[in-house]
Amino acid sequence: MTTTPPTRTYDEVRIGDPLPDLVIPLTRTLIVATALASRDYQDVHHDPELARQRGSKDIFMNILTSNGLVDRYVTSWAGPAATVKAIRIRLGAPNHPGDTMVLSGEVAAKRDDDRCVDISVTGTNSLGAHVTGTVSVRLPQGVTSR
Amino acid sequence: MKGVADADHAGRSDYEERLQAFVGRELNARTPGPDPVNQPMIRHWTAAMGDANPVYTDTEAAHATGRPGVVAPASMIQAWTMRGYGASAVSASAPGRRGFDELLELLDAGGYTSVVATDSEFEFVRELVVGDHVAVCEVVESISAEKRTGLGTGRFVTTLKTYSDQDGETVATQRWRTLRFRPPEPEPEPEPEPEPARVPESRSLRPRPAVNRDNAFWFEGAREHRLLVQRCAACSVLRHPPGPCCPECGSLAWDTVEASGRAQVYSFVVNHHPRHPAFEFPHLIAVVALEEGTRLIAGLTGVAIEDVAIGMPLILDWLDADPDLSLPVFRPAATETN
């Protein structure tokens, strides 16, 4: 039998609640594998020489992956019954191989009418903020499920 | 000369007009992705992203959360309509993408040959299930004036992508901004630099303390790894932070004593934000009560956040942050039993 992990309920989540940090080592393999898994074959995401010719110091993570990691970060905190209603991100410092990104977040807003919770998220690497944004998830009702 | 300048100016405004003519235009008509939503591509995605949410791959888990079957990660929607390897290997234009290719040609002609995505704003109407077939349509919302950015000079192109299913129903929208820029000329190989001062790589310097005549003695002591406490020369009451006048008796005469280094946690905070690049995060900061009686604010080291407690015994250590800055830090004192 599969045990499905619990999902946070709308009522137990409070504005200001922090999410635990998620540390993501930015290996070259991660950057290439995620680009290909998102069907993004732009050379700057896998070819260091061409990336340099185009003005970067090395290959860098594609935005589809930044979206995917932010999605993973919030839904792994919220639990599997949560549904993602919005992901809004802005990119800053690129994620290059060899660096580390730390995702952190907190509950920024709650909307009773549709049980949606906004999580503000920041992913920081050694150059600064790689990604800043907000993920909205709809949570189940109930006082507690944990 | 004037004629040349005028022609140049006319050329530029003509270019601007041709560029702005794309605003409101459909860059590509509704184009279905090459494959319907399917389990193998979802599995590749979740494996690469390190996403262990079972509802993406385990039907039973999906049912347990009230879903009809496995769903695709919301963030994956753009992947279903990516052109894939074929698009970069073959330059031939795909049907339905004329507007897109024309805009790219025009941007290339303006020298904006490099691209980087800067913003993505998704709104999701519903989750995608295996068998859904997603199509995308993209309309230009705006093209900015030329801007100078850290990457090079370029223009921000903002579009709205509308994703729809096999029935033509919208499943998601995405406001999408890319910077189309002119890469700067690559710099010549730099001369090998002389041995740099020993500062940890890619870590900036800590902010400088505001040193003045009243507190300079304290920072000088710190440079010699001596933690000093100011003492009133008249009534012998200790005080910190340093100041010119005894708060107890009002005397301006003072000297110092050196602290033993034995202390305990009076209170503490964990700093997550804002992140100054000189520090490691999360950053543990404590109000430390010295056994002499005064308190000071200092970093804690050698202890996990969950192990810090008020009243915890501490012992003084020193942090030589850089050649000009040494600061006291405190670590847990070893107890008799260990």
UniProtKB/TrEMBL annotation, chain A:
Signal sequence, renumbered to the chain: none
Ranges where the MaoC-like domain occurs: 23-118
CDD domains the record matches: SAV4209 (cd03455)
Family per similarity comment: Belongs to the enoyl-CoA hydratase/isomerase family.
Protein name per Swiss-Prot or TrEMBL: MaoC family dehydratase
Organism: Streptomyces luteolus
TrEMBL record, chain B:
Residue ranges with Basic and acidic residues bias: 195-204
Domain ChsH2 C-terminal OB-fold, residue spans: 257-317
InterPro entries per record: ChsH2_C, ChsH2_Znr, FAS1-like_DH_region, HotDog_dom_sf, NA-bd_OB-fold, Thioester_dehydratase-like
Domain ChsH2 rubredoxin-like zinc ribbon, residue spans: 219-254
Domain FAS1-like dehydratase: 22-174
Region (Disordered): 176-207
PANTHER family: BLR3430 PROTEIN (PTHR34075)
Protein name: MaoC family dehydratase N-terminal domain-containing protein
